[in-house]
Amino acid sequence: MSSKKEKVAMIKLIFNPFWLLIYILPFNLFCSKSDIADVTPPYNQRVTKSITYNNVSVDVVIDMPGSKEVDVLIVYHGTVFLDSKIMDAANNVLDKFKALLDKEMMIVSVAYPEENLLMGDNILHSEAALLWVKNRASEQLGVNVKKIFLAGHSQGGYIVTRLNTMHQTNGVIANAPGPLNLVYRCNQEELGLVATTVTCNLLRGTYGTTSSNPGAYFERSLLNFTQGFKSDILFVQGLNDSPIQMYSWPLYKSNITECTNCKMVKFLDLPNYGHASLFESPQAKSEFNKFLE
Known about the structure:
The chain has helices spanning 4-14, 17-30, 33-36, 86-100, 123-135, 137-141, 155-163, 182-190, 198-207, 214-219, 243-257, 277-280, 282-291; strands at residues 46-53, 56-63, 69-76, 106-111, 144-153, 172-175, 233-238, 265-270. It is of the alpha/beta class. The protein has 2 domains: 4-31, no CATH class; 41-181 and 221-291, Alpha/Beta hydrolase fold, catalytic domain (Rossmann fold). An 8-stranded mixed β-sheet has the order 1-2-4-3-5-6-7-8, with helices on both faces. Strand 1 (46-53) and strand 2 form a beta hairpin. The longest helix is centred in the first third of the chain and has 15 residues, at 86-100. The protein starts with a helix and ends with a helix. The model is unreliable at 18-37 (pLDDT under 50).
């Protein structure tokens, strides 16, 4: 029978920090965080989350359904100019798109920044949100992401159209995307024919006028992004939109129609509707939901 001294020695040996490290370390090395503890999805909740991808950070508002298996609709709001307003814009556009849906989806609304940025510079933040949903959302939210769609209104439509030249998804919907033609739009401001905007003021301060440097303005116009669509896309445009939008809309459509390396493109032009036609037209709502099937 072991002596009392031998029992004490054995206890000290078992609980020696060195041996505890030897036994515990392999478990930590070979078990991922997801193996150790499951993430409980925030079912039927709306949460705001700061995400980072490729060292680019952006805030997103996530509307979670009641299911772990989810199709995702990533939405992008229109122009608000001030970053103090982007969270309100992100929530508002989420509500607008959610009201259109005939089926349950997880909606991720991207609060991309605008203030003091040249038109198009926020494509990096918008892309970061898309790549996060593609590659990290399942693990971090505890869901199984299946299909991913993009949808945007106004500047948000500009963003999703550009993203469609960069990454493949299950489909893209752009309502009244713009600005289509920054050369024309900002030249109208220079001539005093329309009110000045922050967008053109920033471009003018960086590149000079449209007459002295039209190429710089065109590079950031949506007219410069009419080729190489990687996914099917539905464009919705109210034909009673602003004169500036409608001035370039026929040319934009024509350039896309001539695309030889684009996936399926569909245009839905809506007479008697304006800039928000997707959210107001019953026909647009029907086409929107068909596209998501």
